[in-house]
Design goal:
Elements lengths: L17 H11 L8 H16 L10 H13 L10 E5 L7 H7 L4 E6 L2 H14 L4 E5 L2 H4 L9 E7 L4 H8 L3 E11 L4 H6 L1 H7 L1 E13 L2 E12 L11 H6 L3
Parallel strand pairs: 1-2, 1-4, 2-3, 4-5
Antiparallel strand pairs: 5-7, 6-7
Helix pairs in contact: 1-2, 1-3, 2-3, 3-4, 7-9
């Protein structure tokens, strides 16, 4: 892809690079990157769009869409993670938010978990090509790995973006979180009803709502509502959780 191609969607005579598009999109949403990160994100964007033409990885397939819906959305988590922490991204798909977070925070040790092999393979190959030494990709089901070592109660932070309702997510994700760590649920709509429905799930799995942050993502001519729910792990998750996925969905906590 020619990096001088016009991505602005405005005057066709005005051409900006993919790196500039990403930087502008992030800055418009209050996100500032370390030096060199925008260049790496641009390379990831090119790789994702090219791969998506061959295999179905994501419905977001334009540079503008990737910049806003994969990069800016993923990096809204930056204020809530720290250098030196371990992070597990459950249901990561092709690596979001895992890959942008690994690119933005070099001291963060990131693992992307997904049950679809082609998406895990893309994320792992992309990380290798981009030289990310703080990234690993894992193929498996959360309800199976969450009861096993070395995964159970290992991670400082576990996140999930648009995977399931919060009561289901608590059972899938909280077993991975160490006591004292946190689970971050990324939601695309008002989350108050889901929080109310998840009260029992939170109690059963050792969690406590610490914060619910409402924010707006801004792109060209659009505004997208987002919620970031931060759940502190205050007690160990009982060994009976997680149950089989059929049980979780049929009789959610």
């Amino acid at each position: 892809m020619d990096k001088t191609e016009n991505y602005s969607g405005e005057n066709p005579e005005v051409k900006i690079s993919l790196e500039e598009l990403i930087t502008n999109t992030l800055e418009n949403n209050g996100i500032t990157l370390r030096e060199g990160a925008a260049e790496t994100l641009a390379a990831l964007s090119e790789r994702l769009i090219a791969a998506n033409e061959l295999i179905n990885l994501t419905s977001v397939d334009t540079p503008e869409g990737v910049a806003l819906l994969h990069f800016a959305d993923s990096l809204t988590l930056l204020p809530y993670i720290k250098e030196g922490e371990t992070l597990l991204d459950v249901g990561s798909g092709a690596g979001f938010p895992a890959l942008p977070l690994a690119i933005a925070v070099q001291g963060l040790r990131v693992t992307a978990l997904d049950a679809t092999q082609k998406k895990v393979t893309f994320a792992a190959d992309a990380a290798h090509t981009l030289g990310l030494r703080n990234f690993a990709a894992l193929c498996g089901r959360a309800e199976e790995l969450g009861s096993r070592q070395p995964y159970r109660e290992r991670y400082d932070v576990v996140c999930a973006r648009a995977v399931a309702k919060l009561n289901v997510l608590c059972e899938l994700c909280m077993p991975f979180v160490r006591v004292g760590g946190r689970f971050i649920a990324m939601k695309s709509r008002a989350a108050s009803e889901e929080i109310t429905q998840a009260r029992q799930a939170l109690t059963e799995t050792g969690g406590e709502i610490a914060e619910n942050i409402n924010l707006t993502l801004r792109g060209e001519g659009e505004e997208l509502s987002r919620n970031i729910i931060i759940i502190q792990k205050v007690a160990p998750t009982p060994k009976i959780y997680p149950r089989r996925y059929a049980q979780i969905t049929k009789n959610p906590l």
